[in-house]
Design a protein that fits this description.
Distance between the termini: 82 Å
Largest sheet: 7 strands, mixed
CATH topology of the largest domain: Aldehyde Dehydrogenase, Chain A, domain 1
CATH architecture of the largest domain: 3-Layer(aba) Sandwich
Strand order of the largest sheet: 12-13-14-11-10-16-17
Number of domains: 2
Mean pLDDT: 97
Oligomer: single chain
Shape: globular
């Protein structure tokens, strides 16, 4: 079956691709396996030079690369350009810091010398989603390749052009043949890729269901894997919060990327004493959003990436309303061509409703009332997900204390959740495990090797002094 990419703003078929056959897949895996043997021995300086070149290339070609992302998955063009810039930043960050993160760590023992080395594993299979078609890949690739691994990418089929462009960028920037390869295959072929003996490890950013499948297969074959799965992030507004700033940030946190982000704020948990005031401000700000052609620079909300995703979101909204939720804004698809859904805010949401229990991957926000601070934390943790979250309070010390009680991989106090190369990124519970980015991310796909060198030291440690 062929792979089609469709412009979600116009429903036009952009291109039809033939999936790679077994011979093409085997060639890509062999190339990556062969490249690893020499790439692992290249110096950090050589790898860093290539990643700096990649950063330059991304910035120089930002316009056309952003265009590719927008026409394939509908992201507003300004956000696509920002995504490319972030990819360049990540390349530079690991070019500058990888060697420091992976330097041998010497530890005093009874050996003449003993240390911990961080050695690459081999080919890392990357299973990546469509919502940030460049960033999700570069977020993984920069640390993994700087550590000396090679990579094979199986991207989401609806962003196949972006997938091929990423491979081309690595090649054009001078990376050795095989260091980064893309294979165009349907999701059904994923298991075969994971089980191939040339694959050393797997990284997935995707849904909870796919994560369970990938974890099962990877575990069966004893392959290291990192999972960054769904999220239903809480955006907690306490009674002493700056409501004006919270409402403005709430709009960006929910509707950026048309709400199609794992770390988008989704459940807005507001203490009752300020709930009405926050709702009014939130609705007022969200109503200003410009929905339309994602190629127009003033568009803030584009189409959803696929028609089935829009249908699923609408079912969640309608089911929630039927159970007692109240629509304050939007609440339905936008008529006409394209997979547009009106920016939506539903209040009076309670824990048994779909918009509370499930991840809403699109431009729809759920407002939940909390009796007090303690109840707000309880509601936030009442989720199988635990990726990120926001907490709004003027009492910073209280915020620090509450952060330790929130079951999430990240907590942003008086600010919007976002990934940053300098900070670890990942979740707990059904949001996955393992970390990307920072020093923690680059150490996920290395062999943490103990090296002990004899002979044993004969000098005895000094005896403790007597009183």
């Amino acid at each position: 079956m062929s792979i089609q990419t469709i412009n979600p703003a116009t429903e036009e078929v952009l291109k039809t691709y033939e999936p790679y056959n077994q011979e093409q897949i085997n060639e890509a895996l062999t190339a990556a396996h062969t490249a690893f043997k020499s790439w692992r021995d290249t110096s950090f300086a050589e790898r860093a030079a290539l990643f700096r070149r990649a950063a330059e290339y991304l910035r120089e070609h930002k316009t056309e690369l952003a265009h590719d992302a927008t026409i394939e998955m509908g992201k507003p063009i300004v956000e696509s350009e920002a995504e490319i810039e972030k990819c360049a930043w990540n390349c530079e960050y690991y070019a500058e810091n990888a060697e420091k993160f992976l330097v041998d760590e010497h530890i005093a023992t009874n050996a003449t010398d003993s240390y911990v080395a961080f050695n690459p594993l081999g080919i890392v299979l990357a299973l990546m989603p469509w919502n940030y078609p460049f960033w999700q890949v570069i977020r993984f690739a920069a640390p993994a390749l700087m550590a000396g691994n090679t990579a094979v990418l199986k991207h989401a089929s609806n962003v196949s052009r972006c997938a091929l462009e990423i491979e081309r960028i690595f090649r054009e920037c001078g990376f050795p043949e095989g260091v980064f390869r893309t294979v165009l295959v349907p999701g059904a072929e994923t298991e075969k890729l994971i089980t191939d003996p040339r694959i050393a490890a797997v990284t997935l950013t995707g849904s909870e269901e796919v994560g369970i499948s990938v974890a099962s297969t990877s575990g069966q074959y004893l392959k290291k894997h990192v999972l960054e799965l769904g999220g239903s992030d809480a955006f907690i507004v306490l009674a002493d919060a700056d409501l004006d700033e919270a409402a403005k940030t709430a709009v960006r946190a929910r509707f950026q990327n048309t709400g199609q982000s794992c770390i988008a704020a989704k459940r807005f948990i507001v203490v009752e004493s300020v709930a009405e005031a926050f709702e009014q401000k939130f609705v007022q700000e969200a109503a200003k959003l410009r929905v339309g052609d994602p190629m127009q620079r003033d568009t803030q909300v584009g189409p959803m990436a696929r028609s089935d995703l829009r249908d699923s979101l609408d079912k969640q909204v309608q089911a929630t309303v039927k159970m007692g939720g109240k629509v304050l804004l939007g609440g339905k698809p936008v008529a006409g061509k394209g997979y547009f859904y009106a920016p939506t805010i539903v209040t009076n949401v309670t824990p048994e409703m779909p918009m509370f229990q499930e991840e809403t991957f699109g431009p729809a926000a759920a407002i939940i009332y909390a009796r007090d601070t303690e109840h707000a934390i309880e509601l936030a943790n009442n989720s199988k997900f635990g990726l990120g979250g926001n907490l709004w309070t003027r009492n910073i010390e209280q915020g620090r204390r509450l952060a330790r009680h929130l079951e999430s991989g990240a907590l942003f106090l008086n600010g919007m959740t976002a990934s940053d190369p300098r900070l670890p990124f990942g979740g707990v519970k059904h949001s996955g495990y393992g970390r990307e980015l920072s020093s923690f991310g680059i150490r996920e796909f290395v062999n943490i090797q103990t090296v002990w060198i004899g002979p044993v030291l004969t000098t005895a440690p000094a005896a403790p002094k007597s009183e």
